[in-house]
Design goal:
Arc Repressor Mutant, subunit A, globular, 2 domains, mainly alpha, single chain, Rna Polymerase Sigma Factor, Chain: A, 193 residues
Length: 193
């Protein structure tokens, strides 16, 4: 195990893939318990945890438990998601409370179309191989296994590339998130004056 972690620390992709195969199932079960059985969230957190591991692979301590380290990363990522969901919930409640109730599907269709166009523009900024994986997954609904077979690469490479693409998208979307939160808090403050 120590040799494997030394390989990971030095940047060996082979060591990373072995670590992924060794720990992804255990980490998935851990996140499933923490998330109350949310399979989509568990898959997302596992992918993001391994992306994070790769980003900081040089800091891995071969003398310490890697599974504990991975579980800590996963737990922190999950808590961040729950915090964002809480803020989104508060915002949604505020919008419902402060707006007239009406049903106009054309607004929802327009919002979906604008979001899709924005995501398509962001996808164009991805490196070509990552863009191809992202499109196969999110637009053509291929599984990671199907993408790996189609592109003749490992599933862990697909998972890592997909997670990097999603992180890029999230970072771009979140760069506007603080502006939105500030606006919501300002509107709530004005309303209570």
């Amino acid at each position: 195990m120590k040799i494997l972690l030394l390989g990971l620390k030095s940047g060996s992709i082979d060591a990373f893939e072995k670590v992924y195969k060794l720990y992804s199932g255990k980490l998935y079960n851990f996140v499933m318990k923490m998330s109350g059985g949310d399979t989509y969230l568990a898959e997302e957190i596992v992918q993001r945890t391994f992306v994070r591991l790769w980003e900081i692979h040089e800091q891995v301590d071969p003398g310490k438990s890697l599974i504990s380290y991975l579980c800590t990363i996963a737990k922190n990522l999950l808590m961040n998601i729950y915090q964002h969901r809480t803020i989104e919930y508060i915002y949604a409640e505020y919008v419902l409370e402060s707006s007239e109730k009406y049903s106009d599907d054309s607004d929802d269709i327009l919002d979906d179309k604008l979001l899709r166009e924005y995501i398509d523009r962001l996808a164009e900024e991805l490196p070509p191989s990552r863009k191809k994986i992202f499109i196969l997954s999110k637009r053509n609904y291929f599984t990671n296994k199907e993408i790996a077979a189609k592109l003749n690469i490992s599933e862990s490479t697909v998972a890592t590339q997909l997670s990097l693409a999603l992180k890029f998208m999230r970072d771009k979307l979140m760069s506007h998130y603080n502006e939105l939160l500030t606006l919501v808090l300002y509107m709530a403050f004005i309303k209570n004056i």
